Amino acid sequence: MAKNIKELLKKTKSRRRAEVELSTGDVVELYWMPLTLAEENKVREASGSDSRADAYGLKVLIAKAEYEDGTKMFSPTDAGELRNEYARKDVEELMLALLTNSGSLADADMKSAAKGAQG
């Protein structure tokens, strides 16, 4: 059974990458590690009585989105600006990329997965 869990972790714990086209035509590239159950619970607890779906999505975006070099794309203090200064559609597209895990494997993880498949 332990072998199955290790194989599952190898396949699911891979950094993801997505390109999101904004309403301006600019493309934002973001990276993230898949959301774990523990992280999801932490985000839900932090949301408290704010049960709006966008509040949850925004917290996930802020917690998980990274640049290619692994630095955080947003800080918790960016929530107000993201909510008030940017087009709703653009912020929703970024949130959806993470929440639906719709990105592809990041290049380094693709190489690692290919190496694991070979040997």
Index terms:
rbstp2171; mainly alpha; 6 helices; three-stranded antiparallel sheet; about 10% strand; about 120 residues
Describe the protein in words.
The protein has helices spanning 2-12, 37-47, 53-64, 79-85, 88-99, 107-118; strands spanning 16-21, 27-32, 104-105. It is mostly helical and 119 residues long. The protein has one domain (2-118): rbstp2171 (2-Layer Sandwich). The protein has a 3-stranded antiparallel beta sheet with strand order 2-1-3. Helix 2 (37-47) crosses helix 3 (53-64) and helix 3 (53-64) crosses helix 5 (88-99). The longest helix has 12 residues, at 53-64. The chain is globular, with a radius of gyration of 16 Å. Mean pLDDT is 81; it is low at 108-119.
